[in-house]
Amino acid sequence: MLPCTLQSQPVLSTDDSALVRILPSENIRIDMRYATDNNVFGRKFYDEPKAWLTKPAATALFRAADSLKTLGFGILVYDAYRPWSVTKLLWDAVDSTRKKYVANPAKGSRHNRGCAVDVGLFHLDSGLTAEMPSAFDDFTERASILYQNCSEPAKKHREMLRNVMVWAGFKGITAEWWHFDADGWEQWPVLNVPIR
Ligand SMILES: [Zn+2]
Fold first, then answer.
1. Greatest CA span in the chain, whole angstroms?
2. Closest by alpha carbon to 61, among 143, 178, 170, 184?
3. CA distance 51 to 5
4. How far is the centre of ligand 1, averaged over its atoms, from the C-alpha of 177 (Å)?
5. Total Cβ atoms within 10 A of residue 176
6. Which pLDDT tens digit goes with each residue over 87-124?
7. How far is the CA of 156 from the centre of ligand 1 (A)?
8. How is residue 128 annotated by DSSP?
9. d(Cα 151, Cα 156) in Å, to the nearest integer?
């Protein structure tokens, strides 16, 4: 079952006409967990550990990164554009109690549009990952932005990340502290182009 807006033309690009690649820098680290087996499923879903976003989403991410840098933090990118076929694999991999944490392939995901990004923080001085209320893709109540039974630094980092991402042009969701949708995501098609 493919969503009706699915676009299969190759659009990954290194120019600004389509999706643009987020390259690692001093304050942006790329840690694409679904290109490894270091994720909640313990298996790899795609080969290339590369982060692609639409240009507006990438611009907003860079704006957030610049702001976080002044606060002493870098951005860790855990996932960005994800082909529709990967959303289908993820949907099939979770049991019914955890379906709320993955997008329904019938509608496609905002990740499939290159408009969603999963992020955490690291300390620029030490390089260490900043403490959060849960690990990335911990599909439990700890992932909720409303979860309070965690340390004060974890709460502070979660709030700071959200405040800066929203200021930069994203919307957060309640169920996952790490997930952000770029404003205007509705205007972009669902894509099924492999990451390369
Ligand atoms: Zn996400």
1. 47
2. 170
3. 22
4. 9
5. 19
6. 999 899 888 888 888 889 988 899 999 999 999 999 99
7. 21
8. P
9. 9
